[in-house]
Amino acid sequence: MFHEFIQQLENRGVSHKTVKSYQVSWKRFETWFQSTDRGGEVNAVYATQKDVADFKRHLDVAGGKNGKPAASSTKALTFVHLNAIFRFFADKGYIPDNPVGPVKKPPRARRQPKWLTRNEQNALLREVRYRGSVRENAIILTFLRLGLRVHELCDLQLTDLKMSDRKGTAYIRGKGDKDRELPIGSELRAALQTYLNERDDSSPYVFVSRRSPKCSERGIQHLVEKYRARTGIHHLSCHSLRHTFGHDLLVAVKDLQKVAILMGHYKENGEPNLQMTMIYTTPGVEDLEAAVESISWT
Questions:
Q1: Does residue 251 share a domain with residue 144?
Q2: Per-residue b or e along 250-280, where b marks 16 or more CB atoms closer than 10 Å to that residue's CB
């Protein structure tokens, strides 16, 4: 039954990472269910409302790593997944009802927005220009100026780029077939062109590595981790670079719908997901300092 649930996710074009996340949540519940001797050979698919409530208490006590309580984000996401999984089973008629529905869900963890301040961005770019290659400079700037997810950057192909001296666009293959076209500013166009002029290979992908015609996600993450160590910016990651683009964009244009489209935030029906984009409205330290400074008489 669970394999059927996964199949319908894949048929809907859900990303591989999201599918994997559902599998991890189900495995977490299934492993716990089987370890508690709840009916011998009974499959976790037939869990009751009490089983689900007991599992929730387990996460609160020892459901995390090393027998510690699970993180708030883990608990919240696990229950979102279990609710969708059991609702699918119920809709298919495999079980009488959804046992997760009546159970009070763990509160959603408060998302702490993490992006780089202007000074941190400048320190990063300075370090890349001083100690990095033109390839690394192009990768970091692509994150900062296009806000791509890691897999989107790895999947970017030469034919996706349209650049001239005055303008440029990048066609991005997004999550769940929600593609988008992004404008490329002059700074990034220059960095990309310098990198591409230096390349001497036949790979169809924009970013290549020494060993492969296409960069791997782990390879890109390792690159960013290297500069996290060099700069001392502890929250520097591929995701925080993407968040930096979203935050700076919202500060500049103050239009949630435009930012949602440029970030690739969409609902299942294809409409911009403004709720997801709202995270970038949370002010950072620089924003608060600027707000206070704006009323200064000096």
A1: yes
A2: bbeeeebeebbbbbbbbeeeeebbeebbebb
95-106 average pLDDT score? 89
Q: Is residue 138 in a domain? A: yes
Range of the structural domain that residue 259 is part of: 118-293
**Residue 126: what residue type?**
R
Query: In whole angstroms, what is the distance from residue 254 CA to residue 256 CA?
Result: 7
Number of domains in the chain: 2
pLDDT at 254 over 90: no
pLDDT at 20 (0 to 100): 93
DSSP-derived 3-state class of residue 37: coil
Structure tokens at 240: 């925080």
Give domain status of residue 82, yes or no: yes
> Would you say 148 and 155 are in contact if contact means Cβ atoms under 8 Å apart?
no
Active-site residues: which are they?
149, 175, 239, 242, 265, 280
Question: Over the stretch 194-228, which tens digit does the pLDDT of each residue have?
Answer: 999 999 999 999 999 988 999 999 999 999 999 99
Query: In terms of domains, do 86 and 169 share one?
Result: no
Token digits of residue 285: 């330290």
Q: Write the DSSP string, 117-159.
A: -HHHHHHHHHHHHHHS-HHHHHHHHHHHHH---HHHHHH-BGG
Check whether residue 203 and residue 280 sit in a common domain.
yes
> In terms of domains, do 66 and 173 share one?
no
Per-residue pLDDT tens digits for 124-162: 999 999 999 999 999 999 999 999 999 999 999 999 999
253 and 194 in one domain? Answer: yes
8 in any annotated domain: yes
Mean pLDDT, to the nearest integer, of 37-52? 79
